[in-house]
Amino acid sequence: AQSVTQLGSHVSVSEGALVLLRCNYSSSVPPYLFWYVQYPNQGLQLLLKYTSAATLVKGINGFEAEFKKSETSFHLTKPSAHMSDAAEYFCAVSGARYNTDKLIFGTGTRLQVFP
Amino acid sequence: GAVVSQHPSRVICKSGTSVKIECRSLDFQATTMFWYRQFPKQSLMLMATSNEGSKATYEQGVEKDKFLINHASLTLSTLTVTSAHPEDSSFYICSARGGSTEAFFGQGTRLTVV
Fold it and tell me: Which residues on A lie below 8 Å from B107 (Cβ)?
C-alpha cells in the first residue's frame, strides 16, 4: 500500500522568502515520487519527479526536492518565492510500474505569497 | 511534455441527464488512463483506472453504473456521468500514462448539475 502525507494545508510566505512544502510517503515498494502544481480551475502540471536516480531532483520554475529514504520524505523547496508561485501543490506517489501504477495524491498544500 | 486534452472544460446540465467528458492524448499512446474527481479545496480522488481495450477498474465506493468509462483506443477515454444529480457537481480530471514515468493531466472539466 502507498500513501503520502502533506503537512500543512496552507503555507504563507513573503515574496523572496524560502518556500518549504513538506511531504512524507509510505510505500511497500520502491516509490516514484512527484510534485504537481495546480492553478485555479486547471489540471495538474508536473513540477518534478523522483524515479530512483539522483536523490536531489531539480524541477521547473526553480523548485527542487530531495528524496530522503531514511526520513521517508520528499519535501519541495524553492529559495526565493515569487508571486506567481501562489497555487495548490500536490505530492504524489506511485509504484515503479509507471505505465500502469496509479498515482496516490496527498491532500495538497495551498501556497500563498505576500508582497 | 506530452499533451492531454480534456473536453469540455465546463458543462452545465439538467438533473437526470447524462454528460460525456472526453480525454485525449494528443502526441503519445496512453496505455492507461485515470479519472479523478476533485471537490472544492480538496485533493484528487481516484475514481477509476482504464486500460485500452479492457474494462475499467473502479475504486471502492465509486458506482460503475453511474460513472461509465470507456477506453476504446490508445488516445481516447471517455467518462459518462449518467442520470446526473446536483451531488455529482464537481471538477473531473483525467490523466494518462504510457511509456513515461509521469502522468500527464487534462485541463479538467467543471460539471454543474442544476
Answer: 42-43
